[in-house]
Design a protein that fits this description.
Elements: H1 4-26, H2 28-60, H3 65-83, H4 87-97, H5 99-111, H6 113-126
C-alpha cells in the first residue's frame, strides 16, 4: 500500500501533468480560465450548500438523517475539490455534486464492510452493562 505522503506527491504530480497537457492542447489562457471558473463554481456551491441542502432534505423527506448528513458532507468535500486548481480534482468534485453519481458512491461506501463494522461498534457502545454487587455504608 502507498504511504500517505507519497500518495499526495503522486497526486500533485498528476495534477501538474494534466494541467500542462491541457494547457498544451487548448492554450494557457483557456486552461487558467477553466481552473478559475471551476474554483468560482466550487466557492458558490460551498456558500449556498448549507441552506439549500437543508431545505431540500425537508421537502424530499429523505430516508434517514444519516443519509442527509452524508450527502451534505460529500457536497462540501466536492465543493472544496472544485476550488483546488486541477482537472483531476475538478472531475472528482463534479461527480460528487451530481446527485446520481453522489448517491451511487454513497451506496457503495455504505454497503462495504467498514460501514457494518461502524454499526457494530456503535451498538457495542450503546449497550449498558449492569454490575451487581453489594454496598455497605459505615
Amino acid at each position: 500500500m502507498i504511504s500517505k505522503p507519497i500518495f499526495f506527491i503522486i497526486a500533485i504530480l498528476l495534477e501538474i501533468y494534466v494541467l500542462a497537457s491541457v494547457g498544451g492542447a487548448i492554450g494557457g489562457f483557456l486552461t487558467v480560465l477553466l481552473v478559475v471558473i471551476t474554483a468560482l463554481v466550487g466557492l458558490t456551491l460551498l456558500k449556498k450548500q448549507g441552506f439549500s441542502e437543508l431545505n431540500m432534505a425537508k421537502i424530499k423527506n429523505i430516508q434517514s438523517p444519516n443519509t442527509e448528513i452524508l450527502e451534505r458532507v460529500v457536497i462540501i468535500i466536492s465543493s472544496i475539490l472544485l476550488i483546488i486548481p486541477g482537472f483531476i480534482t475538478d472531475t472528482i468534485g463534479i461527480l460528487g455534486i451530481i446527485p446520481l453519481t453522489r448517491m451511487y458512491f454513497l451506496k457503495k461506501i455504505l454497503s462495504k464492510n467498514f460501514a457494518k463494522k461502524f454499526k457494530y461498534q456503535k451498538q457495542q457502545e450503546n449497550k449498558k452493562e449492569t454490575i451487581e454487587g453489594q454496598f455497605w455504608e459505615d
